[in-house]
Amino acid sequence: MADGNPQLIVDLSNQELEELGFLGPDAHEQVQSTVLAVQKAKKHLGWLTVSHLQSLNTHVTFHSSLPSSPISTASDTTASSMISDATAVDLDFASPFEKAFFYKGVSKDHPHLLQRSDSRRRPFVLPPPEDQHTAIPDRTARGATHPCLTPDLWRQEVGPAIVSLLEEKAYGVHVSSMVPVQFSLPDAQGKPVLEEHIVIWISVFPGTTSEESCHGANSAILDILEKHQVKDAAVHWIEGAPERFVGGPAMMEVVDETDPTAYISRAVTAVLGVPLAPQTMQAQDGQGSLGVFFHEGKDKQGGKSDRVLAFTNKHVVSVDTKSDYELGRTGARKQYIMNCGLRRYEKMLEETRAAITKKVEAGKLVAEQLEQNVFATERAKRLKETELNNLKEEVVMLDEFLGHGKSTRGEINNRAVGWLDYAPRIQNNVDDRRYTWDGAVFQLDKAKWEQNFKGNHVYLGGKFDSDDISRFFYPNNANPPSFKYPPNHLFRLQGFVEAEHMKKPYFFDELGNRCFIVAKEGQTTDLTFGRFSEFEAYVASDLPGSSWEVAVFNHTKEDFSGKGDSGSCIFNAEGKMVAFLHSGMPRGMSSHVTFGTPAHFVCDQIKKRYPLANFDRVTFFDVIA
Question: Residues 380, 381, 382, CA angle at the centre, nearest 5°?
Answer without folding.
Answer: 90
